[in-house]
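Hi support team,

I've been running sequence recovery on a batch of backbones for a student project. Most finish fine, but this one hangs at about 90% for roughly twenty minutes before it completes. I'm not sure whether the input is malformed or the queue is just slow. I've pasted the structure tokens below so you can try to reproduce it. Let me know if you need the job ID as well.

Thanks,
M.K.
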């Protein structure tokens, strides 16, 4: 039996640690618990070192430094009151990923909220035991809590094991033994058995590896900028990973001991209407009352693992029947309106759309005082009967340690920032001015000068005291003991350091008291004023009203005083209600103060980053001089403040840069360190400009402080007014200049989701120049409707999006225009050309959607009084030449209406390829990419040509379309990022390359790894600033991205073929050699991305022997198939090789296929998918040259004028297959042979274990839509990473987006199997439909997507699974493909069932593809929504189950029974009759 919780914690720490630190204080001696241990068992068989530290000697600095240097498994025993001063060190410990576990007993302590100098009115109160725990909840530590010694012991062992497995430090907190309801509980100390089961040598070794990686990083730089940790590969374990590890370890603990815990644990009836939620710490009394009196009607959720908080697991634990959630949480007398656990619970229901099905329950905040042990049944009954959103559950609690108590409802302070000041500085805190509600929520009654004079007096008094001490110790005539002289000297040297000043001051006071009776002169005066030994933290609290007039409010005087005074200024204005009028807008106090160069400035938001606020308060106190902390706390409605509203307002303000989080510490500049630390992603432009000019401006302002007021006025109002005048003048001058070119100036506006409307706008600009007219063009949203009043001639080119909607870059313009009732456009003339598809929406009632934006725009402009230049032009994709048919009629009428005569002898639109011109001008794919990467003012590559050229380098510029409209509203640029595709011929990678790809995805991308439909790796979410590093890291792994996209041969696919081992090596070697042979030869890739510099004076002389300067007309795709498996869909590509074997199984050669391709355009029957033709057989030695000549024929004869008609399939259909075959043959020095027989049986993957001919094993994992990521249920990314660390074979990416762990030795198979099971990679119990489904990426990153795909297909397939089970088709393979647009990346047109996105939530459904990929499908019905899809396919599947022939596949069945007509060729794809 352990005497205290510390005894149990000490036993667990001793068993599982290499180093133990015990932090002693006058009220607690945890080191004694170590001394009492009789059992000296340790997992490592080596006794840990034990170090005793004092609480008042900054113990965590020693702990952090020791953990960083020695990298030992470290345990700390302490009481919770040591945590607040340790926050900076805790942050460092988390950053360095040390396996440190801090075991704390929550200490209930008396705190004086205000000293005698304060005017708050409150004399004292209890700071509860959990306050310190909550203060450190965002330091990066995982937090476990318990309410008794046994649980504390168990969780101590789990914490150490989890810290090792995740390299994440843990905090393990327990209720004080004196307060535990189970104080007399016997504790089972079975650490010898449990520790050995939880902590393995393998986990220790992996942790040490991670520590080694972190040791190479400058930890001080990570502290200054934690975002660097991700860039250096030291990124912390994800929240899901930590949760999953703890959950798994608790299961191991239960198996070993029978003692059961869950990270988030529900107790109670199955369908309660009311559920209490509590941290485990402090929950015993509540749990006992519920079990005794309410076990049939009330539920309880105990949270053992509080950090990281898991919204998903919390909601999963909460019964669906709940109508009211009561958050039972400890709260102090003076507290924020919303407590931490309450906010976590509330936010969980809103964190992810659709996370909670049904009505969100009412959430009540029930705060208790003290430890919770005094809770009674009457208290619980009162809470259940109350209808208040916030209540004190034990209002009669009286704290024994405090001389005065203040009820929760009587609190004068209603802001978390004041509470944080109390927690951090305790009895050192002095708030000089009033902090009543009326002075901190926007009232201007209290100015800085209200307390400034008093504070200056107090600061001066301490300065005089310091001078007195200095003179005393230097007075040789004064009789003073050496001990006292030394203490006074040390105090004087360290008087600005609060901790050292207290230590040496207390020593001096004690020595003075010893000789108190004999004190005379200066010693007596020092003794009289001994309160000055302590360094008081002086604060003035103010409101945002101070920001309207910085100079007159007194802020100017404070920050220019150089006095050691701190200002906390609250800004309560909600982001959504912010002032727009520049004349009444608040000034930026932070920017104003930073211009002085000698003021500490921080901008914080407690609802965005609690830990950043604590850092700022501590740093402000430590800074020797004026400090300003700008604190954001939006208060939309004083009467009814929703925590979710506050959270959202704060998130908007921080994410948009309206309220950037930063710290500016001039003291760091003096040390040669960067003084500015940005703690959020975004920053205001004026702040950015300050940082750019800081070296110059700060000096000027230090010398001329009076400039400051002038500066703020010019920044805020005068500059804006002057800017408006200059803009108008520039616009007028531009109009005059343009008008001088000989005709009326034209403003050409376009609305375009693709490129057609913008392309036509550019053509109009060219046409205007040919006619000597001035013209400029832009997107509609880039101008305001008021600009129309200043224009004489406006031309609109508008495409149609969705169901008759305006394109994204025209919606705000239309929203404003449609709402206008009058606009001065009577002198404005306009013309509109619209682009649409009269058959895009097939139903008769949907005809209203056709060209609706252009028709509505035309009508509205006429209504407002503008004059049409021409009739409305309506381009229709159904016309013979698509929109060009109507354009050819409308454009001449436009020029005629502008008074332009027909051009004579001038070719208006030269018949040339714009893309070819771009390639020629690019200097072999260089363009201005290198220059664009250096432009850090934007997240995009601005030059349109560069966005096309980067595709040749394997890069697509994208933006997050989920955020596009909101960012547009906020005036922000799109959330640009880049997709990077890695060229992996045949999809074969080494384990080292897999580990590299895994790391790169975390360091430079969005943390996931995409396996593509073309056997390539793909990174998403790569920011421009990380793009070059991403490419360099890829190349460092001996892979690259060149030619992964663009008008060249792309990644060559090859059947993974795990069974025919020898054959696979032969065909894969061929694929690799062919890929290298067809690779572009330009050196631009190495120059731009790998910093391969040209020799000085050397000219760029590149040569493309195969491609030439214009490369290919369009992309070119090659695959290699190995019968009987057609997983590469060999007929769906430009060039295909079908491996033919000899009788002995060796490679005889290849049948060659040409002319396949998937892409098409909705509504354009001139575009269609096509299956390839077989043109003959070649030997392995002839195969590369054959492929080269096929590609060169396409290079020379492909359509370079129309990119929608530029693929090889159209070249062959235009000229005939025999012509094409003859052209290829004429270029070959050998004769192609007749094709040889072969047979395909399927195009799916072989899941599970397969043994090859060489006796090696291969395991094919199911990876949903190729997205490798971790989820709590399926930590696949972590699992594959761990497997790669021990695997000695290969990783093979399959053409269906799955993964083969290949070439596993028999001796290693069992070990791999264990890991597959551990990380849920062995899960193959999916339906045949799910296993044979595939989707492209689509939303949110693909710019072409019209509908969801990857994120949606699994849920759609699930809609049919119960039916498939019922009718006996669960295991039948039905090929299902989905794409977000008709371009066909997931090869949908060879699927038995295909869904092709047409608009958001609407899909064209295609049926009848061949099961082996040998037949195209055909359109069944257009624009079906999910309910319609389910209604159509469910009876069809039932009929298939009942009427199919033996062995008949679904695609064959729907053709046989007449549901769909067979597609016999690409040209008949659209033939539905």
């Amino acid at each position: 039996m352990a005497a205290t919780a510390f005894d149990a914690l000490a036993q667990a720490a001793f068993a599982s640690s290499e180093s133990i630190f015990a932090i002693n204080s006058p009220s607690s001696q945890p080191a004694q618990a170590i001394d009492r241990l009789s059992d000296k068992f340790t997992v490592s068989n080596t006794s840990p070192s034990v170090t005793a530290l004092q609480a008042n000697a900054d113990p965590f600095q020693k702990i952090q430094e020791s953990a960083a240097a020695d990298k030992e498994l470290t345990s700390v025993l302490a009481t919770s009151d040591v945590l607040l001063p340790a926050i900076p060190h805790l942050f460092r410990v988390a950053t360095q990923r040390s396996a440190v576990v801090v075991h704390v007993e929550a200490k209930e302590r008396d705190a004086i909220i205000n000293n005698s100098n304060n005017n708050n009115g409150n004399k004292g109160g209890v700071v509860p035991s959990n306050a310190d725990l909550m203060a450190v909840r965002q330091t990066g530590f995982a937090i476990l809590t318990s309410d008794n010694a046994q649980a504390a012991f168990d969780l101590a062992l789990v914490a150490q094991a989890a810290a090792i497995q995740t390299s994440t430090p843990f905090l393990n907190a327990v209720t004080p033994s004196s307060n535990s309801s189970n104080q007399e509980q016997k504790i089972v100390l079975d650490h010898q058995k449990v520790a050995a089961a939880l902590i393995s040598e393998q986990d220790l070794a992996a942790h040490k590896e991670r520590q080694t990686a972190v040791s190479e990083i400058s930890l001080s730089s990570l502290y200054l900028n934690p975002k660097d940790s991700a860039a250096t590969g030291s990124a912390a374990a994800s929240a899901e990973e930590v949760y999953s590890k703890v959950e798994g370890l608790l299961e191991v603990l239960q198996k070993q001991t029978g003692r059961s815990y869950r990270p988030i644990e529900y107790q109670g009836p199955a369908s309660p209407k009311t559920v209490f939620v509590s941290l485990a710490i402090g929950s015993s009394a509540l749990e006992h009352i519920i079990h005794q009196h309410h076990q049939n009607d009330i539920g309880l959720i105990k949270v053992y693992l509080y950090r990281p908080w898991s919204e998903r697991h919390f909601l999963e634990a909460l019964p669906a029947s709940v109508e009211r959630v009561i958050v039972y949480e400890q709260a102090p007398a003076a507290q924020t309106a919303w407590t931490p656990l309450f906010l976590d619970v509330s936010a969980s229901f809103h964190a992810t759309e659709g996370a909670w099905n049904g009505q969100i329950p009412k959430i009540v905040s029930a705060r208790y005082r003290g430890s919770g042990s005094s809770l009674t049944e009457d208290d619980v009954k009162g809470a259940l009967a109350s209808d208040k959103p916030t209540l004190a559950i034990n209002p009669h609690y009286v704290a024994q340690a405090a001389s005065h108590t203040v009820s929760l409802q009587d609190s004068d302070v209603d802001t978390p920032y004041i509470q944080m000041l109390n927690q951090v500085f305790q009895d050192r805190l002095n708030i000089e001015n009033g902090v009543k509600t009326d002075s901190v929520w926007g009232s201007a009654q209290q100015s800085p000068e209200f307390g400034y004079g008093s504070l200056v007096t107090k600061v001066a008094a301490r300065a005089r005291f310091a001078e007195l001490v200095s003179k005393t110790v230097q007075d040789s005539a004064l009789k003073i003991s050496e001990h006292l002289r030394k203490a006074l000297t040390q105090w004087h040297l360290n008087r600005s350091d609060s901790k050292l000043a207290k230590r040496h001051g207390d020593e001096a006071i004690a020595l003075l008291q010893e000789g108190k009776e004999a004190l005379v002169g200066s010693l007596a005066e020092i003794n009289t004023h001994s309160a000055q030994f302590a360094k008081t933290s002086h604060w003035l609290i103010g409101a945002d009203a101070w920001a309207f007039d910085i100079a007159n409010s007194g802020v100017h005087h404070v920050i220019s005083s150089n006095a050691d005074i701190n200002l906390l200024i609250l800004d309560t204005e909600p982001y959504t209600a912010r002032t727009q009028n520049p004349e009444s807008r608040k000034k930026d106090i932070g920017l104003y103060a930073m211009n002085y160069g000698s003021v500490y400035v921080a901008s914080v938001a407690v609802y965005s980053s609690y830990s950043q606020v604590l850092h700022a308060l501590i740093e402000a106190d430590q800074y020797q001089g004026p400090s300003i902390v700008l604190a954001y706390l939006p208060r939309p409605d004083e009467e009814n403040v929703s925590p979710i509203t506050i959270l959202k307002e704060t998130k908007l303000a921080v994410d948009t840069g309206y309220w950037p989080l930063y710290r500016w510490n001039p003291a760091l500049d003096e040390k040669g360190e960067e003084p500015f630390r940005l703690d959020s992603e975004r920053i205001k432009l004026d702040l950015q400009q300050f940082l750019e000019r800081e070296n110059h401006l700060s000096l000027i302002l230090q010398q001329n402080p009076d400039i400051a007021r002038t500066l703020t006025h010019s920044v805020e109002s005068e500059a804006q007014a002057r800017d408006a005048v200059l803009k108008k003048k520039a616009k007028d001058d531009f109009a005059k200049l343009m008008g001088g070119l000989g005709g009326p100036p034209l403003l050409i506006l376009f609305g375009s989701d693709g490129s057609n409307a913008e392309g036509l706008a550019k053509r109009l600009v060219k046409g205007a120049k040919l006619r000597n007219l001035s013209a400029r063009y832009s997107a509609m949203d880039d101008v305001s409707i008021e600009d129309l009043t200043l224009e004489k001639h406006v031309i609109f080119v508008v495409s149609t999006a969705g169901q008759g909607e305006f394109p994204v870059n025209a919606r705000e313009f239309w929203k404003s225009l449609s709402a206008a009732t009058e606009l001065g456009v009577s002198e404005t003339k306009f013309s509109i050309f619209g682009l649409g598809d009269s058959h895009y929406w097939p139903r008769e009632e949907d005809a209203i959607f056709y060209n609706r934006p252009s028709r509505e725009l035309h009508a509205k402009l006429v209504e407002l009084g503008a004059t049409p230049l021409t009739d409305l032009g309506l381009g229709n994709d159904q016309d013979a030449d698509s929109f060009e048919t109507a354009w050819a009629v409308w454009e001449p009428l436009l020029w005629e209406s502008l008074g332009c005569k027909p051009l004579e002898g001038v070719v208006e639109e030269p018949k040339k390829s714009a893309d070819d011109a771009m390639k020629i001008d690019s200097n072999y794919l260089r363009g201005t990419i290198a220059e664009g990467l250096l432009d850090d003012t934007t997240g995009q590559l601005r030059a349109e040509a560069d966005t096309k050229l980067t595709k040749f380098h394997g890069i697509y510029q994208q933006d997050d379309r989920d955020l596009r409209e909101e960012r547009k509203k906020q005036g922000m640029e799109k959330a640009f990022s880049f997709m990077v595709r890695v060229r992996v011929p045949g999809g074969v990678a080494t384990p080292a390359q897999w580990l590299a790809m895994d790391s790169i995805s975390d360091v430079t991308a969005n943390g996931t790894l995409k396996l593509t439909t073309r056997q390539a790796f793909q990174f998403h979410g790569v920011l421009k600033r990380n793009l070059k590093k991403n490419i360099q890291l890829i190349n460092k792994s001996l892979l690259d991205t060149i030619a992964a996209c663009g008008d060249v041969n792309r990644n060559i696919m090859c059947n993974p073929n795990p069974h025919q081992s020898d054959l696979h090596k032969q065909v894969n070697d061929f694929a690799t050699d062919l890929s290298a042979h067809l690779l572009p030869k330009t050196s631009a890739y190495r120059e731009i991305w790998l910093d391969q510099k040209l020799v000085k004076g050397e000219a760029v002389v590149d040569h493309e022997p195969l491609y030439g300067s214009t490369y290919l007309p369009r992309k070119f795709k090659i695959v290699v198939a190995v019968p009987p498996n057609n997983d590469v869909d060999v007929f769906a590509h430009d060039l295909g090789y079908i491996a033919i074997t000899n009788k002995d199984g060796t490679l005889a050669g290849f049948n060659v296929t040409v002319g396949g391709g998937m892409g098409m355009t909705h509504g354009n029957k001139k575009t269609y998918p096509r299956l390839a033709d077989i043109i003959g057989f070649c030997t392995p030695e002839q195969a590369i040259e054959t492929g080269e000549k096929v590609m060169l024929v396409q290079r020379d004869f492909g359509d370079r004028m129309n990119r929608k008609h530029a693929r090889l399939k159209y070249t062959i259909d235009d000229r005939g297959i025999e012509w094409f075959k003859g052209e290829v043959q004429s270029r070959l020095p050998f004769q192609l042979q007749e094709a040889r027989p072969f047979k395909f049986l399927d195009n799916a993957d072989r899941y599970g274990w397969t043994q090859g001919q060489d006796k090696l094993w291969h395991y094919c994992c199911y990876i949903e839509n190729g997205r490798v990521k971790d989820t709590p249920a399926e930590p696949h990314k972590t699992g594959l990473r761990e497997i790669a660390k021990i695997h000695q074979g290969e990783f093979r990416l399959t053409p269906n987006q799955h993964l083969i762990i290949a070439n596993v030795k028999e001796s290693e198979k069992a070990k791999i199997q264990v890991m597959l099971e551990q990380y849920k990679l062995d899960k193959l119990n999916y339906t045949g439909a799910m296993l044979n489904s595939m989707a492209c990426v689509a939303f949110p990153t693909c710019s072409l997507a019209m509908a969801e795909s990857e994120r949606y297909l699994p849920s759609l397939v699930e809609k049919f699974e119960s039916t498939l089970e019922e009718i006996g088709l669960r295991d039948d393979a039905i090929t299902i493909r989905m794409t977000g647009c008709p371009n066909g990346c997931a090869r949908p047109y060879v699927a038995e069932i295909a869904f092709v996105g047409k608009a958001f939530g609407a899909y064209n459904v295609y049926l009848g593809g061949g099961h082996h990929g040998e037949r195209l499908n055909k359109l069944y019905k257009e624009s079906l929504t999910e309910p319609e899809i389910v209604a159509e396919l469910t009876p069809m599947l039932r009929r298939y189950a009942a009427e199919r022939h033996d062995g008949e596949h679904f695609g064959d069945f729907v053709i046989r029974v007449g549901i769909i007509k067979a597609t016999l060729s690409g040209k008949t794809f659209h033939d539905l009759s």
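--
Follow-up from support: It reproduced on our side and the slowdown came from queue contention, not your input. The CA atoms of residues 658 and 1245 lie 51 Å apart. No action needed from you.
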